[in-house]
Write a structure and sequence with these properties.
Helices cover 42% and strands 19% of the residues. With 405 residues, the protein is of the alpha+beta class. It has two domains: 182 residues, no CATH class; 162 residues, Nucleotidyltransferase, domain 5 (2-Layer Sandwich), CATH 3.30.420. It has a five-stranded mixed beta sheet, sandwiched between helices. A four-stranded antiparallel beta sheet has the order 1-8-7-2. Strand 7 and strand 8 form a beta hairpin. It is globular, with a radius of gyration of 26 Å. The model has no long low-confidence stretch (mean pLDDT 84).
Length: 405
């Protein structure tokens, strides 16, 4: 499964319509969430969340949309509110499983988005299965994308191949609109990697140090983008941005500043995303067995001296990308226990000694070897076979005990 994402080239009329469709989705999502919470307050009614949402959807379709004050909802495709209820159902299901927090009301500040999908399949005769690909949209090479329920939109970047998809999600970042969809395709991972095993130590000064003595440095453009963002915020620190609660309308200059602020944040996110994707892809193509330390990112963020550097580098996203790219490139990512003393152990003789965070060179008190601290930790992670096996056994014992309880 691959993801396809392109930026759209919209005029003012199309942008206005996109904002209206995103607002419709936001209205339906919030309506469903409030009604669902209200239904839980009635005692004696035993029903699943999916049943409650289906009944709420019927109320919205047969009653709310027929009211004169909500006549504007009939301007937009029904696909939008159908997908909005589906998104709400998925959010509730994730909350029930403990995978996410309880869903909150959708807000315009968090960005605009809505989903369109092609649901109508063609059945040749009664009782026969639907014809293949009749419930999918085929996108041809070029700059035009046919969105179900909306029509044809133009993308800024050309599509070089045919592909088909059923669901299309339109989203806004700052003042730029994007369309994304999934492509059903299988990737054949490579069989041979140049290097069999590598240990990677993540740091603040240097983003990553590898056990083969190579280093990866975060791009300077990321620091430059954050500097420009800080200057923009400082120059407009006294600007009145408007408040609905206080009844203060935002001026045109305030709206202009908000758009510019969104562009700066988008620039920083794109630079970081580009760096992490290129880095993890390069590592996955070269190394087969990749070992990382299970960093306590939340604890590191609590240290105000490290918080900014840790958030800028994106340690968690780096690990997440390496793990999901295992199936793409045939790699094996292994996580070493965070209590493994990789920085305090000599990679030559195994001697352990305490080290301050400010000490950047490991001077062994046993064999007198001198080696950079990060390189020493990366080599220890690479050679942590025994500790890794013990860590896996420890985790399996905990899981079995939990099942027995």
């Amino acid at each position: 499964m691959y993801a396809f994402k392109r930026e759209l080239k919209l005029n003012n009329k199309e942008t206005s319509k996109m904002r209206g469709m995103a607002g419709f989705r936001r209205f339906v999502y919030n309506f469903g969430l409030e009604m669902l919470k209200a239904s839980w307050s009635f005692e004696g009614i035993k029903a699943s969340d999916s049943f409650r949402l289906n009944e709420i959807k019927k109320v919205f379709t047969n009653h709310v949309m027929t009211l004169p004050e909500y006549a504007w909802t009939r301007k937009y495709p029904s696909l939008i509110y159908q997908s909005a209820f589906q998104d709400l159902a998925d959010a509730i299901a994730r909350w029930r499983k403990g995978l996410a927090k309880f869903p909150v009301l959708a807000s315009k500040k968090k960005g605009d988005k809505f989903t369109l999908y092609k649901a109508n399949a063609v059945y040749p005769k009664k009782g026969e299965p639907a014809l293949p690909f009749t419930n999918r949209v085929v996108i041809e090479p070029g700059r035009h994308i046919n969105l179900p329920g909306y029509g044809i939109v133009k993308s800024k970047e050309k599509v070089d191949y045919y592909y088909s998809s059923q669901r299309f999600t339109v989203s806004r970042t700052a003042d730029r609109w994007f369309v994304s969809s999934n492509i059903d395709a299988e990737h054949v991972p490579p069989i041979i990697h140049k290097v069999e095993k590598v240990g990677i130590d993540l740091g603040v000064a240097t983003f990553a140090t590898l056990s083969d003595n190579s280093t990866i440095v975060a791009p300077t453009t990321l620091k430059q983008a954050k500097t420009k963002l800080s200057k923009l915020q400082w120059r407009n620190r006294h600007k009145q941005l408007g408040s609905k609660k206080k009844g203060i309308r935002a001026s045109n200059n305030a709206k202009k500043f908000s758009r510019e602020l969104g562009r700066k944040h988008s620039k920083i996110a794109n630079v970081r995303k580009d760096f992490l994707h290129k880095t993890t892809t390069k590592i996955s193509k070269k190394y087969y067995q990749i070992r990382l330390e299970d960093l306590n990112v939340k604890g590191m963020m609590a240290n105000h001296k490290l918080a900014e550097a840790v958030s800028n580098n994106g340690f968690y996203e780096f690990r997440r990308q390496l793990e999901y790219k295992q199936s793409h490139y045939g790699t094996k990512v292994e996580i070493v226990d965070r209590w493994f003393p990789s920085s305090k152990t000599c990679s030559e003789c195994g001697h352990k000694q305490d080290m301050k965070l400010s000490e950047r060179v490991f001077n062994c008190g046993g064999c007198q070897v001198s080696i950079p601290r990060d390189l020493n930790a990366a080599i220890n992670l690479k050679n942590a076979d025994n500790h890794l096996a013990a860590f896996k056994e420890k985790k399996s014992i905990k899981r079995s005990r939990g099942k027995d309880l």
